[in-house]
Amino acid sequence: MEGFLPMDVCHLPKGFQLKPGNHVDNSLDLWTRTDVQTCTQWKAPIIWDGIFNPIYYDEMYKKQNIVIGLTVFAVGKYLDLFLEGFLVSADEHFMPGFSVIYYVFVDDLPKLEEMKLGGRRKIKSFEIEKHKRWQDISMFRMKAISKLIENHIKHEANYVFCFDVDQRFEGRFGTEALSESVALLHAWYYRRPKYWYTYDSNPHSAAYMSTKGDFYYHAAVFGGTWQSVKNLTESCSQGIMQDKQKNVEAVWHDESHLNKYFWLHKPTKVLSPEYCWDQKIGWRRDIHVFRLLWAKKQYSLSRQID
Ligand code: 5GW
Ligand code: MN
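Above: the input record for the complex with manganese (II) ion. Below: its predicted structure, written as tokens.
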């Protein structure tokens, strides 16, 4: 990690002027990183370290006085294992300097209260049932988030980001990540050819993709304006319910539905794997900074349902 310019002294790109009508995304320097793809075919930026100036981003969104929601689910063992580390690190690194509301779904509210997560930010907690199958815990989130947006988020936040809990923030995950609809490149697939992508290949599933898509996106992080995340979560949860009625299940559950959705509705911004990196992959020349890291999985512990 040495030898790279730390974020807080990065003043790239130079000469940009923040004026009304000039969106801060116009300040991106897509040509400064020649080692990675910084733009999709449909001209959405792919956010890599060095192409953005965090000062410009914070300045523009400060003027807009935005509120950002964060959703996270911690059920069963995941509540004990991951939630505290996730939220404490989010206090420091997720949208620093901005007004953030955490929407936390747990199956044990008293346990959450015991954790005394009285950090700097507002936490709104919700109790949910613990589904028996882990696939259902994961898929249920789409429906819960769409209801949450309808009942709460749309009245109190502009943007929302949805996260897996088994991770922790390690570096800035800031306003440069904001856009109408935001998808994340899966750390294990971003360098791989398309034939590796594990989209759903069962024509009976709503997540089925007949051709290879653009990228393989990771369901551990997605976001955008509340309107666009509502469309996404509603559409995915309808697909999941339709599959249940037909007694089929997509190969990677909610992630397969998410990939189908982003294939049909292109994201307006894509995040590089800096925004959700797995250290098991090892050192990669193009990863200059860790913003969010996968937590170590203790499958033997956490994959037991009881
Ligand atoms: C997930 C898999 C096996 C057993 C349990 C779970 C599980 C997931 C759980 O017991 N409790 C829980 O809250 N979850 C939620 O679903 C967490 O927010 C978790 O981050 C998310 C997705 O499950 P992951 O993280 O195990 O899935 P992968 O794709 O990261 O392995
Ligand atoms: Mn996960």
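Notes for the reader.
Strands lie at 46-47, 67-74, 99-106, 122-127, 159-163, 167-169, 181-184, 221-225, 269-271, 292-294.
The mean pLDDT is 93.
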